[in-house]
Design a protein that fits this description.
Structural class: alpha/beta
Radius of gyration: 20 Å
Distance between the termini: 8 Å
Number of helices: 10
Strand order of the largest sheet: 10-9-8-11-12
Number of strands: 12
Largest sheet: 5 strands, antiparallel
Strand content: 15-25%
Helix content: 25-40%
């Protein structure tokens, strides 16, 4: 039976004008387009799948084989997604966690059609401070463990529900970080202040099911900090840490630990972390959705991750081999 799948990436699908921060939206839009096109391209290659995807500009073309759909004039993003959800069997959606957007979309679509994490998991991981406290309570090493460490030389102030490194500042002095937090909080921002963990910035791409949390890849994050302490996220090198790297065992254990602590993680999810030279992996945040590390990952692994997500939805989880077998006979 052909599955009708609707792909919606918030910024490229029409939410750009509603985001509320033009500079942030402009910064994140290229990442959104690349994620949408990677998701669509994988779905188009999946068996028994018809694909529609949201576009907002006439010249914004999709990969071949997908049908573009657009919101009506003055139709809100949520009304548009609800309308398309009713016309499709499944909805695969990417949106920032900022201001509760992703969780609200999940509740708009509903569990029956949603390809991704539960609303509860999204709401927990949307708050960086709450996520770290929750994971620390489950034995995961986080920056909270370094709050009083004598060797901490820098501190970071960032939106508590931000994405893509937007509005993230790194300070050399704790007093400056406190001033930054106070100033921006007075302007209405909700911020978190954490010790800056020195080391290699990595991310883990996970494929989560009810029975398994598979670590698909270890990615290297490209992060820069300018002379004023402004952090920029410059992309990710996908599957950059090889199979022979001795850190893989500890990182796979971290992925399992996080997935067990947040049982609502489902489908594609990402973990951001820093590998500290002495202390090993330090969790930074959890992304309960497709991340930019999805782009090129199917090709790098020689797998169609979208097809596996569909097979998991149809056949109820299992290992990678079981999902591949289920997809082959579907």
């Amino acid at each position: 039976m052909t599955q009708r799948v609707f792909v919606y990436e918030y910024l490229s699908g029409g939410g750009w004008s509603d985001y509320g921060d033009d500079a942030a939206a402009d910064e994140l839009l290229p990442l959104g387009l690349s994620m949408r096109d990677a998701m669509v391209a994988d779905l188009v290659r999946a068996a028994d799948c018809s694909v529609s995807a949201a576009v907002c500009e006439p010249g914004n073309t999709l990969p071949a084989g997908a049908v573009p759909v657009r919101p009506h004039a003055n139709e809100s993003a949520f009304d548009f997604v609800a309308r398309q959800s009713a016309l499709h069997d499944l909805v695969w959606l990417v949106a920032p966690e900022t201001d509760g957007l992703l969780a609200r979309f999940q509740r708009t679509v509903g569990d029956a059609r949603w390809l991704g994490c539960s609303a509860e998991a999204i709401e927990l991981t949307a708050g960086k401070k709450a996520t770290l406290a929750h994971l620390a309570a489950h034995g995961v090493q986080t920056p909270l463990a370094f709050a009083d460490a004598p060797d901490i030389a820098r501190w970071v102030v960032k939106p508590d529900d931000g994405a893509g490194g937007v509005a993230t500042h790194v300070h050399q002095r704790h007093a400056d970080a406190l001033d930054d937090q106070a100033t921006r909080t007075q302007a209405g921002a909700t911020l978190t202040l954490e010790p800056w963990i020195e080391g290699e910035a990595l991310s883990l791409s996970l494929l989560c099911t009810e029975q398994n949390a598979e670590m698909l890849s270890i990615n290297r994050q490209c992060i820069s900090i300018d002379a004023h302490g402004r952090l920029s996220f410059d992309g990710v090198n996908v599957d950059a840490v090889g199979r022979g790297d001795p850190r893989r065992h500890d990182l796979a254990a971290l992925a399992t630990q996080v997935a067990r602590a947040i049982p609502g993680l489902s489908g594609f999810a990402g973990i951001d972390l820093v590998w500290h030279p002495q202390h090993g992996p330090v969790m930074i945040e959890v992304n309960p959705r497709v991340t930019c590390a999805y782009v090129g990952l199917s090709a790098a692994l020689g797998r169609n991750l979208a097809a596996e997500l569909l097979a998991d939805r149809l056949h109820g989880g299992g290992t990678h081999q079981e999902r591949e077998l289920a997809r082959a006979v579907a």
